[in-house]
Design goal:
single chain, alpha/beta, Rossmann fold, 2 domains, six-stranded parallel beta sheet, 13 strands
Length: 383
């Protein structure tokens, strides 16, 4: 029997298929973005299926979310790997059987982004590409830079041009998407779970901690954090420094910290979950000396929500939050004296409490509803 009831009057069964190279427990900003978005979409009543590389020992399961693991090559740098031949056909069949009606891919250069575009075309489904970068890859060798640029202007450009909708994670991402692929994009800021980080009351304590939170890889600027701590060690003997994160530079970080003038006051924690580093962020100054092509860094949002101040290079998120009145000081990466001076300026008094309405704009609940609306409109249109 044919259902003649108008489509607009029916609840639309949204089923989002995430096609992503990496997914938790793999650690990274894109992975955390995808997981948070997927969880919130499930909470809103959507179905979610995630296709990612595996198998991964001890992978966590999440209520209402199915995870399909696809075999692939060993990862280069622990990040980039390729599925074996036949993966596109397998995922297309599985997604069709499950009724996936929107494909979600993230960042233009991942192999699974290209594959997700192809799956969407075979299904006749729309595909949303969320771009997390703001420039070509930086902080790598000339050979790797040349190779990554080649991937960008071929597979990356192809994916951006064939996406039904491109979402730009920051204001710096929009012009990059236009420059690379000559396509428009819609601003879709990154988000956090604000209630996890927001203290009930403003702290009256002046900060006595420096914090670095991020991947321990070249270009992230962890050296600057240790150098600042060393410069201030004599004048501020009770100043603690906490480095939270993991990565290929982990051993170098530990060696550099031990050899520094502030060695006894520096703790390298490795990876920590949100509830753990929330306590470290309290009454602290977050240093963000990265020179990489970052998206909208959630670490800055988390720090501000937790009541910390921030000193950062001129990244899109830092500039935007500073323009809204958040306690963010901007410094050039090479301005060594400027970083220490900024920290001294902030050590004297507690960080001002940010208005709740500002933080609400960056909460995952609101952002997921926005994504749900966009995805549902695209899926209904494709029918």
């Amino acid at each position: 029997m044919t259902n003649t009831e108008p489509l607009a009057d029916q609840p639309f069964p949204l089923h989002v298929g995430f096609v992503v190279n990496n997914f938790p427990p793999h650690v990274g900003g894109v992975e955390q973005h995808v997981l948070a978005l997927a969880k919130e979409l499930v909470n809103l009543g959507a179905k979610v299926t995630v296709a990612t590389l595996g198998p991964v020992h001890g992978r966590e399961t999440f209520p209402g979310m199915e995870i399909i693991e696809v075999a692939g090559t060993p990862a280069i740098g622990g990040v980039l790997s390729w599925p074996f031949p036949g993966a596109t056909r397998k995922m297309t069949r599985l997604f069709r059987d499950k009724g996936v009606n929107v494909i979600s891919v993230h960042t233009r250069f991942f192999p699974f982004t290209f594959i997700g575009i192809r799956i969407a075309r075979r299904l006749g489904a729309p595909v949303i590409l969320t771009e997390h970068g703001s420039d070509f890859v930086r902080g790598v060798s000339p050979l790797v830079a040349a190779g990554s640029r080649l991937v960008d202007v071929t597979f990356g450009r192809y994916s951006l041009r064939r996406a039904s909708l491109v979402l730009a994670i920051s204001s710096a991402t929009e012009p990059f998407v236009r420059r690379l692929a000559n396509v428009p994009s819609t601003l879709f800021f990154n988000a956090i779970h604000t209630k996890v980080f927001r203290p009930a009351e403003q702290s009256l304590e002046a900060p006595r901690k420096l914090v670095f939170l991020g991947r321990l890889v070249p270009g992230k600027g962890w050296e600057r954090v240790i150098d600042v701590a060393s410069e201030l060690a004599d004048k501020y003997p009770d100043l603690e420094t906490h480095i939270v994160g993991d990565g290929t530079d982990r051993e170098r970080v530990e060696q550099y910290a031990r050899a520094s003038a502030a060695g006894d006051s520096i703790t390298v924690h490795g990876f920590m979950n949100s509830s753990q580093f929330r306590e470290i962020l309290k009454d602290s100054i977050l240093l963000n000396p990265t020179t990489l092509a970052e998206g909208f860094q959630t670490t800055l949002l988390e720090a501000i929500a937790a009541g910390a101040s921030v000193v950062s290079t001129r990244q899109a998120a830092a500039e935007f939050l500073a323009s809204l009145g958040a306690p963010v000081i901007l410094r050039d990466a090479a301005d060594e004296a400027g970083w220490a001076d900024a920290v001294k300026q902030l050590l004297g008094s507690p960080a001002p409490r940010i208005d709740d309405s500002l933080l609400e704009k960056f909460d995952w609940g609101e952002r997921a509803r926005e994504y749900q609306t966009l995805a549902s409109e695209l899926a209904q249109g494709s029918r």
